[in-house]
Amino acid sequence: MATMKDVARLAGVSTSTVSHVVNNNRYVSEGVKKRVNAAIQELNYTPSVLSSLARDLKTKQTKTIGMLVTTSDNSFYFEVVRGVERSCYERGYSLILCNTEGDSVRLTRNMETLLQKRVDGLLIMCSEHQSISKDFLLRYPLVPIVTMDWSPFDASSDVIKDNSLIGGELATNYLINKGFRKIACIAGPQDKTPAKQRLYGYRKAMKNARLEIPDGYEIYSNFEFSGGFSSMKQLLQLPEPPEAVFVSNDAMAIGVYQALYQAGVSIPEDISVIGYDDIAIASYLTPPLTTIHQPKDELGKLAIDMLLYRMDNPDSKPKQLVLTPELIERGSVRKHR
């Protein structure tokens, strides 16, 4: 079995240089790094598990990050997780992902498991986290936490979130500027801050344009395919169905598409639709979905950057980073005749 000395001899470097390349804990030039990695591959060298554990005990780091995310039909979560995992890999960390399944009890158990495994930091991207008690968190005061997308449990957590108020206003103003006046909103669950803020943005834009919101034009749904489907069917049953709909996320917008298809209603000729998130499938729908873009890969990268900063600066004040949404024009909204 090849040793670190064998790798160093073949690559023409010191064993400490090989260690730095393997552990990614000090700068090594790209040329030297390529020679070391080539030697590792040629010799089929595998770093000792025992030496790795000894290093972790010495540095009090496990080079792992835990992440809690809720189950969902919405691929927005998957796309953010992909960005997080990529950023972890680039920085020499492993990611342990736990699915809460929307269950606050499972959330607490998974979180406790991650903390007992001595993860270096924790990312939380699930709506159930608001049920976690401060007493629970006080048992692990030294573990840095970054909350993504949802509100924090308390002021001790760093937060990255979307400016959903501006996003909701941006989407609604786009429909207004296209000449629509009868505009409905399919909002997400109102115990979720992003859903609430997107609804407020819709109301703000309608108020500023002096447009009435008729009874039945606001529907609170669940951020899932099924919610968009049932909500759109409900809107179609109104005496005066809307001319355009702002849907608070793309997953529900997909459900809206299906409901309109089943009803024989054409997009955008009969009803225009705008979504939110810009998930990957949005541009492949028929017609491609006009939506509000959230920078999901950037969200993952920034979350890891913020977490690593918190690890190195545990006494710094909690930060709140708000990302600015962007309108993506496609084919699901027409100019009102």
Automatic annotation (TrEMBL):
PANTHER family: LACI-RELATED TRANSCRIPTIONAL REPRESSOR, RIBOSE OPERON REPRESSOR
SMART domains: HTH_LACI
Keyword presence, Repressor: yes
Organism the protein comes from: Xenorhabdus innexi
Keywords assigned: DNA-binding, Repressor, Transcription, Transcription regulation
CDD domains: HTH_LacI, PBP1_PurR
Keyword Transcription regulation appears in the UniProt entry: yes
Record-given protein name: Ribose operon repressor
